[in-house]
């Protein structure tokens, strides 16, 4: 049993070690830092001009996590005379600062993603760029790529366009505050409360986003609800674990990003440009999903059907909200992870089974995903009418494979650090009793999820229980070095 009086675990060192164990380089190489110094000394001109309209007069805003500084996108909407809503999503122009095959680009191409460990972020691009020069921070003139589309009252999109622009974020907002206001659970954030125009703007965006979401659900998009737990760190100590849940603000951004990524994919298809697509293929283990549904009283067809699966999930959520995140997680695991693939013009796309969309790329987060930087370069080349794109099909295929592998590795890093931080937080609570749900019964052991705080651990001597059983447990040990948490039945 661990000593509950242990006061300090070096989570920073643990994060670096786990990063390296999973194939990442936590530090930027000297040539990349030299290039960064050159960019800071002579940054690109941020001006409008031919083919780059000045859209700074629009009421752009961003909604992100409370602590986010790497802001990739801003949004604005306009009601049209015919009742449709024109949505414009502005994406940071990272390519304007980081050219292809430069040291920063080569490092980003190897790492492919920013990794969030809870105690420290390991950015794909230096923070002087990703949280500064290329971040769409409030009250700063920025270059961006705009994805524009129309949304009707049924949530159908049309009229998609992609073009560069000069823009300015007028209000940097957060998910928790805006979500509570949109759902009438809390007051308007100060920036929103002081601006009737911003209030009307966010209501209009919410209206369009809800229509988009409902249309995706009609086509079989899955209403998955997994639980994300984020540590509260003070003076490098984990003092609490907070559960992050979906709300109207997170849905707003999610639905706008899905529509924006779809519009970019269609634009590249129309321009007959090879691209990197983000896909979740039709589940090969559909029979196991059918069996899972049967265990919970549901009946699914023999052939994969995302609409039927989502109907089952909705029933389960209403019947057992406490255990619904575990059912969702089981479905996600059986569906298999998403991956990046090369798509050539005219070839059929496997699509994204979970989102129920056929055309889908990643274009909305170039500060933290290399695939999005590549897509940004493909867009620029297509808009310029270049006869040959910036990447060959073989290069795109290799980039897609590396992005998939590094995304898998990043999930392993984040999962390992979440376990360690949960163990640190639980050390001081050894001997306490908790309500829990059995989440897994495997040859390696029986696992339970404590409801408050939201952490998982091993149930020692967990014989005679099954997934979904609710019970009282006692915390007997916590090992931050390995991320182990052990319970016994109370």
Structural class category = alpha+beta
Q: How many DSSP H or I helices?
A: 13
- Report the helical percentage: 25-40%
Would you list the SSEs in sequence order as H and E? HHEEEHEEHEEEHHHEEHEHHHEHHEEEEE
Placed side by side, the strands forming the largest sheet appear as 13-14-15-17-16
Task: Evaluate the radius of gyration.
Answer: 23 Å
**Quick one: how many beta strands?**
17
Give the domain tally: 3
Distance between the termini: 17 Å
**Roughly what fraction of the amino acids lie in strands?**
15-25%
- The overall pLDDT average reads 90
Q: What low-confidence regions span 5 or more consecutive residues with pLDDT below 50?
A: 1-7
Indicate the overall shape. Answer: globular
Topology:
Layout: H1 11-21, H2 30-41, E1 61-64, E2 73-79, E3 85-92, H3 103-111, E4 115-116, E5 121-122, H4 127-133, E6 141-151, E7 157-168, E8 171-174, H5 175-182, H6 190-193, H7 196-218, E9 228-234, E10 237-244, H8 248-270, E11 275-279, H9 286-295, H10 306-319, H11 324-335, E12 339-343, H12 370-383, H13 393-426, E13 433-442, E14 445-450, E15 455-459, E16 470-479, E17 484-489
Parallel strand pairs: 1-8, 15-17
Antiparallel strand pairs: 2-3, 3-6, 4-5, 6-7, 9-10, 11-12, 13-14, 13-16, 14-15, 16-17
């Amino acid at each position: 049993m661990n000593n509950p009086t242990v006061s300090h675990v070096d989570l920073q060192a643990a994060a670096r070690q786990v990063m390296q164990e999973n194939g990442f380089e936590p530090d930027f190489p000297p040539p990349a830092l030299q290039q960064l110094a050159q960019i800071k000394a002579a940054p690109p001109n941020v001006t409008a001009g031919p083919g780059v309209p000045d859209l700074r007069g629009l009421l752009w805003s961003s909604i992100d996590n409370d602590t986010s500084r790497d802001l990739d996108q801003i949004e604005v909407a306009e009601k049209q005379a015919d009742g449709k809503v024109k949505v414009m999503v502005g994406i940071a122009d990272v390519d304007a600062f980081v050219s292809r095959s430069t040291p920063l680009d080569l490092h980003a191409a190897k790492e492919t993603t920013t990794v969030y460990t809870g105690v420290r972020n390991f950015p794909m691009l230096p923070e002087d760029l990703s949280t500064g020069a290329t971040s769409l921070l409030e009250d700063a003139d920025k270059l961006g790529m705009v994805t524009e589309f129309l949304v009707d009252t049924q949530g159908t999109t049309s009229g998609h366009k992609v073009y560069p622009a000069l823009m300015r974020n007028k209000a940097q907002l957060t998910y928790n505050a805006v979500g509570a206001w949109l759902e009438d659970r809390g007051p308007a954030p100060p920036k929103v409360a002081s601006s009737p125009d911003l209030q009307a703007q966010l209501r209009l965006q919410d209206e369009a986003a809800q229509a988009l979401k409902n249309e995706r659900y009609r086509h079989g998009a899955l209403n998955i609800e997994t639980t994300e737990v984020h540590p509260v760190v003070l003076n490098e100590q984990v003092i609490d674990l907070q559960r992050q849940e979906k709300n109207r603000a997170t849905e707003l951004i999610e639905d706008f990003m899905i529509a924006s990524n779809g519009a970019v994919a269609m634009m590249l298809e129309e321009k007959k440009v090879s691209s990197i697509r983000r896909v979740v293929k039709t589940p090969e283990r559909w029979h196991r999903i059918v069996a899972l549904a049967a265990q919970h009283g549901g009946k699914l067809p023999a052939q994969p059907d995302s609409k039927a699966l989502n109907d089952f999930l909705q029933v389960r959520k209403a019947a057992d909200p406490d255990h619904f995140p575990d059912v969702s997680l089981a479905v996600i695991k059986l569906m298999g992870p998403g991956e990046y693939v090369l798509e050539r013009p005219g070839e059929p796309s496997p699509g994204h089974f979970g989102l129920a969309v056929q055309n889908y790329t990643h274009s909305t987060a170039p500060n933290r995903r290399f695939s999005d930087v590549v897509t940004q370069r493909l867009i620029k080349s297509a808009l310029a009418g270049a006869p040959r794109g910036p990447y060959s099909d073989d290069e795109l295929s290799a980039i897609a494979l590396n992005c998939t592998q590094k995304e898998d590795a990043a999930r392993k890093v984040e999962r390992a650090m979440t376990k360690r931080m949960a163990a640190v937080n639980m050390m001081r609570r050894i001997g306490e009793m908790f309500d829990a749900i059995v989440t897994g019964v495997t040859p390696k052991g029986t696992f339970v999820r404590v409801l408050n705080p939201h952490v998982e651990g091993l149930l020692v001597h967990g014989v005679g229980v099954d997934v979904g059983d609710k019970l009282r447990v006692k915390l007997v040990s916590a090992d931050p070095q390995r991320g182990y948490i052990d319970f016994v039945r109370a």
